[in-house]
Amino acid sequence: MSNPLVCILTAGQGQRMGHLGKVLNKALFPINKEAIISSIITKFPRETKFVIGLGFLGEQVKKYLSIAHPKTEFIFVEIENYKGEGSGPGHSLLCCESELQNSFYFVSCDTLWANILPDNPDENWVGVSGISNEEDSRNYCNMEIEDGIIVSLRDKTKVDPARFKAFIGLCYIKDFSLFFNGLKNKNTVAGEHQISNGLIQIIENSELTAEYIDWTDVGSEEN
User: Fold this and answer.
1) Nearest to 203 by CA among 129, 141, 124
2) Phi and psi at residue 205, in whole multiples of 5°?
3) What is the pLDDT of residues 121-141, one digit of tens each?
4) Cα 90 → chain centroid
5) Whether the Cβ atoms of residue 127 and residue 113 lie closer than 8 Å to each other
6) Calpha distance 119→83 (Å, rounded)
């Protein structure tokens, strides 16, 4: 794609990142001597515009990006409600809505992947991966897939790993108006405003395809 638009959310508190997560934004944790967010940014073409949601220790992220990627175009959006009831990635994306008035990629700041990104700008798609067991499935937004199409979604709920795959925090939203209309449904999951309401709107009114991705979840201290 030419001139892609990418949204990366870094507002969360990184509660799974251990003691260091209290003083360092999780997007800046190093892997192979490179910040996680830099590993994400370098997956995209140089002309990409990035919308960055800032919250917990947001000034760290902003300063780091200005130093590490001085030639990259960033738009920073302050997320005031980044903790507590009603916060979460769905809320943060709604805060970024005015800057995402085009088709865009969404990437969680704790998702890394090995694949070359699918180049199918005419489709809404989500990256998925297998779930190791039913107990683990409750940590994810789970997708039921038929013939490559998402037909239903179960968020943070135990599901059958044989029928469902986990959403990995990487997707491409072509029908952005549909998506944001869905996000305006403020129903919460596990106390957080998730992005699943936006994805459900696309499932019900358009089409959402599944892309199998070689994924690493780096959102915990252990990982």
Assistant:
1) 124
2) -125, -5
3) 899 999 999 988 887 788 889
4) 10
5) yes
6) 35
Residue 161, SS3? Answer: coil
The model's pTM is 0.93
For residue 39, which of 52, 23, 28, 24 has the smallest C-alpha distance?
28
Proportion of the chain in helix, strand, coil states, percent, rounded to 5? 25, 30, 45
Per residue in 1-54, pLDDT tens? 568 999 999 987 766 666 777 889 999 999 989 999 999 999 999 999 999 999
DSSP per-residue letters across 78-142: E-S--SSTT-SHHHHHHHTGGG--S-EEEEETTEEE-SPPP--TTSEEEEEE--S-HHHHTTSEE
Q: What is the pLDDT of residues 161-183, one digit of tens each?
A: 889 999 999 999 999 999 999 99
User: Which residues 6+ apart lie within 8 Å of 168 measured at CB?
Assistant: 108, 111, 113, 126, 127, 128, 129, 213, 215, 217
The pLDDT value recorded for residue 18 is: 66
> 178-181 contacts: CB < 8 A, separation 24 or more?
178/202, 178/205, 178/206, 179/124, 180/93, 180/94, 180/97, 180/100
